[in-house]
Automatic annotation (TrEMBL):
Signal peptide: none
Gene: ackA
HAMAP family registered for this protein in UniProt: Acetate_kinase
Name this protein carries in UniProt: Acetate kinase
Pathway: Metabolic intermediate biosynthesis; acetyl-CoA biosynthesis; acetyl-CoA from acetate: step 1/2
Amino acid sequence: MKILVLNCGSSSVKFDLFDWTTQKTLAKGLVERVGTINSTIHYNSANQSPLVFTKEIKDHTKAINEVFNLLVGENGCLKDLNEIYAIGHRVVHGGEKFKKSTLIDDKVISTIQKLSSLAPLHNPPNLAGILATKELLPNVPQIAIFDTAFHSTIPDYAYVYALPFEWYEKYGIRRYGFHGSSHLYVSRRAAVMLDKHIKDTNLITLHIGNGVSFSAIKSGASIDTSMGFTPLQGAVMGTRCGDIDPAIPLYMQEKLKLSPAQMMDILNKQSGLLGITGKYYDRRDIINSAKVDINNIDEYDYENLIGDIEHEHLSIFKKAEEGDPRCMLALQIEAYEIRKYLGSYFFALNGYLDAIVFTAGVGENSPLLRYMVLRKLENLGIILDKEKNLKANSSTGEMTITKDYSKVKVFVIPTDEERVFIEDTVAVLSGNYKSHVSYEYTFQKKSYKPLK
Ligand SMILES: Nc1ncnc2c1ncn2[C@@H]1O[C@H](COP(=O)(O)OP(=O)(O)O)[C@@H](O)[C@H]1O
Ligand SMILES: CC(=O)OP(=O)(O)O
Ligand SMILES: [Mg+2]
């Protein structure tokens, strides 16, 4: 039973073809820079060396055509596209309509279309992917897996904004939350690592990639999350501003005579860490330019449990030379904002916290950021293990990075959103799936071995 999953982003299409019967990935890859003459296609399949090439890919339909051609071409792993049993699509915004993964029909397509105005950067490419595959393979069932669905358990006091209430009732203005498949996957894996049932597990999951979002998870269900009505709210991100005073865009729009579309572009694409540093959004560049090295922390910082004001933030690093001040500032802002969310979610969970999970590109690969976020929290029962923190990254696989006697555990768990798309696709079609809260995923089984 071959399942294809697609994640159509604004300028990329990620795909994964998975054989459910043998539990093996047959092919996976990515079409980058869709809409340009220099699109790059990366294609990896089980028995061949990876393929990378560049060509003009005008739109998502062309990108999906390219993927299908590769799957049945000379490096392909299918004889015929009709071997594909079902297709799962990531859809970022499901609004209040979709609280679980759903079989796509014309009504679902029209609802996703209506929701596009709530997520103008994300839903239109998701929809383009659905329509393109529907045209190419009209008889293959397609399933939508919504980023927002995992957060449908958030209570009203955490999702209603302090705005005119009719805006919520008439226009659906409320917190929705995103990255649901990632928070779902890592929370279930964390319960396995704790050797607890997910329904007895309280967690704070930190998805730190280009987009950044956190989730407070009580008894396995999301009770709060940092992203909001759109994926623009929350902690500072690569190019998105996150939490700011809502008066600022209105004030600056008038001052610089900007249209709403220009302002949206600035808040989404020219702000965040890129805005602060003026040049970088990739954390690797920021860390390099800040010239702070996790291997060069003042031992005083490890030895003294209670931080003193003199010794806060970047003074903990013994610097060989002065780093770029705005990169240093960007790093401190990011770590400080994450700490503040951790504090508020710790209270939201009444202090009953089993583990904190770091995931996604930065969460999995930056021991420096993890250290800056978690230092001197011993009083809350969080005691980091220096060596384990230095070691953990995407390729080490799941790791605990706290001392054995740490009351609250901290895990690094490589996320696997595609696995959720695949399982939901199979589950919806088998009729076994009621909701993510009740469903038992294969990756919740102790015998499940995640990919490294
Ligand atoms: N070794 C590393 N140290 C710090 N950050 C890293 C490292 N490796 C990758 N990253 C960061 O991961 C980010 C991408 O994360 P990812 O989860 O792939 O994001 P997205 O899926 O939102 O594009 C990049 O901005 C990069 O800064
Ligand atoms: C919702 C969202 O921000 O997704 P991504 O991180 O993939 O852009
Ligand atoms: Mg991602």
